[in-house]
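Example with several molecule types.
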Amino acid sequence: MAEVLVRSLTVKTGHATLVRAASFNLSAGELVIIIGENGAGKSSLMRAVAGYLPVTNGRCLIDGKDIARLKPAERAKLMAWLPQSPSIAWPIRVRDAVALGRFPHGAVPWKLAPTDAAAIDKALTDCDLDHLVNRSITTLSGGELARVHIARALACDVPVLLADEPVAALDPRHQLSVMQLLRNMTERGASVLVILHDLALAARFADRIIGMKGGEIIIDSNAVDVISPVVIRELFGVEVAVNHDSGWPQPVLVG
Ligand SMILES: Nc1ncnc2c1ncn2[C@@H]1O[C@H](COP(=O)(O)OP(=O)(O)OP(=O)(O)O)[C@@H](O)[C@H]1O
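Resulting structure tokens for the full complex:
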């Protein structure tokens, strides 16, 4: 279990400010979802939290330790980051690609401890990849490959998971099952931060939703507060009607 505290985080590159004074908490057992228009700064914020983008001002702490000061090996034991467009350059088998997720625990694919093998097998099954374990990743469809990357992140089995649009390439059934997997992780105590463009999925699964615009956090609240016509108009410049019949706010584009 781990807690992430982000305080007044600013990221600048050249003359551009990608993230401006962002502050939020990600506690153990929480699923927090970031939404916002293209270019709002969501990925930049997540990359900075993950320690892969230099922070200009502010701090990002994990259990009180400054993430930027952690050695990569220490950080990898605490936090997994699934980028928006992950890539593995070699034509390796699906199972070996997922096994890469066990590197932070000292595993190598040709010498897996029983705990490593169990984590890999569970991630493969959870991501509906059992029938593809021996396929080369270069032969997979876009959605199948996306599920391999998600499985690799799940196999890390670390306290904090950051995932940048993990379900964008998935069909509705796999979108729901992956979001449910993330929810299950939080129920076991993990802290999960996800970027999503699907507002209905965000509303259904999030404990909190962070709305970003122009590099700033505009709102950080529950789904009912964020998925409202006023806030969605401010964040995205579109009109929505919101239906609450299913127990969570479901936005529908209107006009
Ligand atoms: N190295 C850079 N130099 C200049 N501008 C950059 C750089 N990296 C990112 N940006 C800009 O910063 C802004 C935020 O980018 P970011 O990738 O964080 O957006 P995002 O909210 O994740 O968008 P999307 O929904 O399209 O993935 C964008 O306008 C992008 O063009």
